[in-house]
Amino acid sequence: MLTQIGIHDLAIDRTKASGEQKHLTMLVTSAGRRVALLQAFRRGAEALGVELDLLACDLEPELSAACHVADAAFAVPPVTDDNYVEAILAICRDSNVQLIVPTIDPELAPLASAHDRFAALGAHVSASAPAVIDIARDKLKTAGFFAAHDIPTPRTATLAEVRDNPESWIWPVLLKPRHGSSGRSVSIVESPAGLPLHEDEPMIVQALLRGEEWTVNIYIDDAGRLRAVVPHRRIKVRAGEVEKGVTRRAPRLIEIGERIAASLPGARGVLCYQAMVSPDGEANVFEINARFGGGYPLADHAGAAFARWLIEARLGMPSSAGNDWAEDVVMLRYDAAVFVQP
């Protein structure tokens, strides 16, 4: 059953849309710790003079920092539950949601596949076409996509293929889940003897890359036009998410971003890719995320205001999207807390 958590005892006022001021009700799903993402949408709305009702949902919203800073929050089933999409549809129907922003990989496919059902309620799902999500969610398909479009990527194979032909590989190698994210269960395997004999989930093996790790944020408008490519170097990473980073106009990475955007069928809105740049300057791409990356706040503060641009698009406002963002903007994350009184 759908449950609303009245964190701020907010009643959505459906009369706000009347009058001259623009109004938007949006929902951030699987909000978790994405406080900075919600703040980016608030900044974007304020800059546009848009009155924003910012809703959030999570499995346990009472334990989600982002849900506590939202205007209202909702409890929903796990994203793997058959009733997950129905729960999101109910929120959209009851709260007159106009924009839905997914934040984690497992929910992208079910939400994108229900695009027409959400559209019938006046809610737009900010996600690429299912074909793009299918490529991004499967690292073996991702590697095949890169190879087919002449995008440099590390050699990739299934675990079974490597076990059958270990002598053809240079060791050590990288072992990771085929459908993983956030650095989950990624490990370095030093020799064939270290390969697992059994798979609890499908695994792939990749050639081990050395060098600097980068994330490149990409924004594509509703007409399929690439509007911005924003690389940042991941100076320090914690739990798979950038903790310290700096924006750079890296020509090779921007060129690769342009090629990815041109090659993905039905890419829209926000995406990012990850690459390793070796000491000799060679870049290899190893992952695509068809959603906001965890390091997006750095791009936003550098002037690539993807959140603002999504608001503009949803409300039919003139687009300010462009590639005019600042280099050398540094993000130094620190631990903060949301305190909840009993």
Report helical residue fraction: 25-40%
Structural class given helices, strands, pairing? alpha+beta
**Number of spatially distinct domains:** 3
Could you give a short account of the major beta sheet?
6 strands, mixed
Largest beta sheet: strand ordering = 1-4-3-2-5-6
CATH class category name of the largest domain: Alpha Beta
Choose one word for the global shape.
globular
How many runs of DSSP E, i.e. beta strands?
A: 16
Task: List strands and helices in order, with pairings.
Blueprint: E1 3-5, E2 23-28, H1 35-48, E3 51-58, H2 65-69, E4 72-75, H3 84-95, E5 99-101, H4 105-113, H5 115-120, E6 124-125, H6 130-137, H7 139-148, E7 156-158, H8 159-164, E8 173-177, E9 187-189, E10 203-207, E11 212-220, E12 226-238, E13 241-247, H9 251-263, E14 269-277, E15 283-289, H10 296-301, H11 306-315, E16 330-332
Parallel strand pairs: 2-3, 2-5, 3-4, 5-6
Antiparallel strand pairs: 1-4, 7-10, 8-9, 8-10, 11-12, 11-14, 12-13, 13-16, 14-15
